[in-house]
Amino acid sequence: MSYLFKTADINMIRSKAIDLIKTFNEEEFRQFGLYTESPYFNRELIQVKFYELLKKYYPEFKARTFTKEQVYSKLYPGKTFNDGIMRNILSKTLELAENFLAIKQFRDDEFNHSLHMLQAIAKKGNDKLFGKVEVKAAGLLEKSQVKDEMYFLNLYLLNNEKRLFSKNQKSSLYFPDELLKSSTESISLSFLIFMLRNYTDIANTNLKMFRFEEHASLTEFEKYADSEVKKYKDTEYLQYYYYSFKLAKSQDEKYFFELKKIADLSHLKFSERDRRDIFTILTNFCYFKVNSGDLNFRREHFQLLRENFERGTYKGIRNYVDHINYLNVTVTGLDAGEIEWVEEFILKYKPELDDSNRENSFNFANALVYYKKGNYDEALNKAAKVKTDDLSYKHQLKSLYMKIYFEMNVIEPFYSHVDSYRHFLLNEKHIPENTRNSINNYVNFTKKLFDIKIRSSAKDFEIHKVRKELLESKAIVNKLWLLDKVTEIENSLPG
């Protein structure tokens, strides 16, 4: 029986057209049928007939009868199968589906639909109709809650159409100054926000990759932004991205608090993407502050993560909780001493994890909790249940095992695991070089501390030297944990 299913799968129609139509929801599929039946968009009756056949197989398109030969026999009863004709039908279907999506996107964007209508009416020179459509377009634009770079770009396009229409309706010498001024300001704001967004991404990427060298392009742009942003102090969205850029580039905490103030007061005025970006920028800063030894930001980091879930903005564009986010909240909450809250969090959001990562994430999160509580045997049991090839899990698991062996003072397992961890980092080609170095530094410092810890003759100057090296090291992960271990060893030394 399984052989028959495999054979049917092999013969089923496979094409880009079907792959695209599979993504249509029920309403889109219905509308696509109306589009195909419209002689304005399609004059080939065979395409209408093909759509009627597709209705029987939507949305999976996995039936045994969904083969080129059997579909062809229904389209052309009694005729010999012609693969070339079938391929042409599928090619035309793909063209229709692509055009349908483009038109749907155009119609769904009410402002751009009105703007294009305005441009078409302007060519006809209809003054009254132009004014009516212009008022509608302006009203749609003003309803925009998010005043981002696209808002200002659209404002420029609208004002520019009004300016050109007025100029053409009057004389070549007529030049409406207010519209020209408004257009210039709008395009300047759009460009400035767009550039700030891009340069913020560049600065954040440098930090994620542990690149701390100065970039000339960032410095040059910063001078330009400092000068231009002053002109638009009341444009909230611009201020948001300006502080985002300044924070990402300088890592100065005064920009953190300015950005956090904007986020607290105005988060509903930003798009989902913007709220996600603000959250990422703020949490990245907390991570780097803590990693540099500033423990005051441990609590700030946790509060941001908790607020992200309390506000319901944690999913982003997904309909599930990302497993990396789930584990980040677990780790940060435990670092902040919120063990009870973390245990409730782990249980509450387990059902919202995606199926492929649910059990692994849940077991790993519990392993971290048991580790924090000092129940190392149970932490090892939970960690052993994590079965995945996900690279992020592999590193985190190896890190957890190393920490557990460190705490348990088990010499042979610890050194054996350190050796295994180093081989993993050396052989795993998908790890970026800068990240590899930062993890290697973490492993090396952990071994240094363990060497000191298990020796009865450890000296003060040795552990103080490690602390100094740690604080001076920028490219290193888990610095906070290492500093905690340094303090514990210092406190255990006699005298």
Please describe the topology of this protein:
Layout: H1 2-11, H2 16-21, H3 26-37, H4 45-57, H5 68-75, H6 83-108, H7 110-124, H8 127-142, H9 149-169, H10 177-208, H11 216-229, H12 236-250, H13 253-266, H14 272-291, H15 297-310, H16 323-335, H17 339-349, H18 358-373, H19 376-384, H20 391-408, H21 411-427, H22 433-453, H23 460-472, H24 479-492
What level of helicity do the residues show? over 70%
Question: Sheet with the most strands?
Answer: none
What amount of the residues lies in strands?
under 5%
The helix-strand sequence is HHHHHHHHHHHHHHHHHHHHHHHH
Number of strands: 0
Mean pLDDT: 86
Give your account of this protein's structure.
The chain folds into three domains: 2-108, no CATH class; 144-317, no CATH class; 389-495, no CATH class. It is an all-alpha fold and 495 residues long. The radius of gyration is 30 Å and the shape is flat. The protein is built from 24 helices and no strands. The chain has helices at 2-11, 16-21, 26-37, 45-57, 68-75, 83-108, 110-124, 127-142, 149-169, 177-208, 216-229, 236-250, 253-266, 272-291, 297-310, 323-335, 339-349, 358-373, 376-384, 391-408, 411-427, 433-453, 460-472, 479-492. The longest helix has 32 residues, at 177-208.
Relevant terms:
single chain, 495 residues, mainly alpha, 74% helix, flat, disordered N terminus
